[in-house]
Amino acid sequence: MMRRALQNTGWLMGARGINAVLSLVYLALATRALGLEGFGQFVIAFTFAQLVVGFTSFQTWQAVVRWGQTAEDRGTATGFALALDALTIVTGTVAAALILWLAGDWLPIAPDLRMPTFLFTLVSLLAIRSTPTGLLRVHDKYARAAAADSTTSVMRAAGAGVVAVFAPNITAFLVVWGIAEIATAAMYWWMAGQTERIDWRRFSLSRLPREAGAEQDGKAWSFVIGTSLSGMLTIASRQLLVLLVGAFGGAALAGIYRVAAQLGEGLLKLAQALLRAVYPELVRDPENARLLAAKMTRIAIVTGAVVIGFGLVAGEWIIIAIAGSAFLAAYWPMIILAAAAALELSGASLEALLLAHGRAITNFLLRGIPTAIGLLALPWLVDALGAAGAALVVLGTSVLTVTGLVFVSRRPRD
Predict the structure, then answer these.
(1) Considering the entire predicted model, what is its pTM?
(2) Mind telling me which GO cellular component terms the entry cites (predicted)?
């Protein structure tokens, strides 16, 4: 189990590594083509779409993995996940339209950017790929998932190069990012279809909860809601901060924070890869789950320490080389966010263990309470410390969440 988990993690981290390198390419192109203010406005528009998708979508890949371990059950789990994705598209589209057209000046998106932002949000909703991701993971096809995942960064980097030369404006960059989303979703669905025939006839919101409920004391919806709320909190603690920084400090400050996050939260992507690779193994072998989680946590701690040290030594040089000296204010926020991501990396296996035991609501509470506290403190911290204040919100949230995960994982269940 340990070997397979490490192999799967390796595939995901390999894809993350490729994406990280390419993300530096398109980050450099976007920051230099748009400038401090323009890049900040682009970041706010892009973040709005991510927020809508994050707040209206479900972690359907976890449902596919949890209830799709056998071929007989997988069709039902996939049909349930597809129905949830359809619900996301409808809900997200309505929410985005209402917010963009009814919001006043409090929403830091310029009036002339609201229609492009809405169209990009719609594309992002249509490009949801959580369900095919779950199908690939339940079959241990992590190499295929890694190849599909790399499509986003390849398309963004190539498109950003063209746009930076011929049409260096915010709308053009949004078009490129939208094409990348559609291409990635198409690749995921193609890979999933190559792995297993997808039975669309089982499209249903009621079948799986009814069948799983009979076997598991009606906890199917509790699990789905809990994992979705936890995903929403991850979005809130990261992406919502970008939007709020733009609202409280302006587009330029949002751009600085985004650069810091892009460079400093690389470990967070590794944490997400670790969670996604380890979770199926913990579901399959609950007897050895705690031992595997402990080993993966020790590996994560060492990795986090090395990356933070590298950031302290070379951080300023990296920022100047990629984004330019105008973004040097991102240095300390980057270090703080790297520390927060290192904590998340060390707690990823513990979170996977909690989810494997079906305790999604507990996981939501462990993230929800610290996130609420951090968001309440955000206006004062941004006013006093700028982008570093927003980064401290993320760090404080991670400290409290991972501490809670450690405490809960050590308590014996009744």
Answers:
(1) 0.80
(2) plasma membrane
Burial class (CB in 10 A: 0-12, 13-18, 19+), 339: buried
* Both tokens assigned to 174: 């949004």
Q: Is residue 414 part of a domain?
A: no
Q: Report how many domains make up the chain.
A: 1
User: What is the DSSP annotation of 366-398?
Assistant: HHHHHHHHHHHHHHHHHHHHTHHHHHHHHHHHH
Is the distance from CB of 336 to CB of 392 less than 8 angstroms?
yes
Cα 97 from chain centroid (whole Å):
23
Query: CA-CA distance, 164 to 31, in Å (whole number)?
Result: 10
Q: Which of 392, 375, 299 is nearest to 339 (CA)?
A: 392
Q: What is the pLDDT of residues 322-366, one digit of tens each?
A: 888 889 999 999 899 888 888 887 777 777 777 667 677 787 888
What whole-number distance in Å separates Cα of residue 365 and Cα of residue 400? 11
- Identify which of 363, 356, 413 has the alpha carbon closest to the alpha carbon of residue 67: 356
Question: Which structural domain, as residue segments, surrounds residue 161?
Answer: 2-409
Alpha carbons 106 and 257: distance in angstroms, whole number: 19
Angle at 121 between CA 118 and CA 125, to 5 degrees: 140
Q: Is residue 72 part of a domain?
A: yes
User: Do 199 and 64 contact (CB within 8 A), yes or no?
Assistant: no
Q: Which amino acid is at 262?
A: Q
Of 134, 136, 144, nearest in space to 11 by CA: 144
Candidates 167, 214, 206, 159; CA nearest to 184 is 159
Q: Are 155 and 184 in contact (CB under 8 A)?
A: yes
For 151-199, the pLDDT digits (tens) are 999 999 999 999 999 999 999 999 999 999 999 999 999 999 888 888 7
Residue 257 lies inside a defined structural domain of this protein = yes
Q: How far apart are CA 338 and CA 134, in angstroms?
A: 28
> Domain for residue 109, yes or no?
yes
Helix, strand, coil share of the chain (percent; to 5) = 90, 0, 10
Residues 6+ apart with CB under 8 A from 329: 256, 386, 387
Q: CB 29: neighbour CB atoms within 10 A?
A: 23
Integer CA distances (angstroms), 123 to 10, 46, 52, 116, 258, in order: 30, 12, 12, 11, 22
The token duo for 58 is: 């479900």
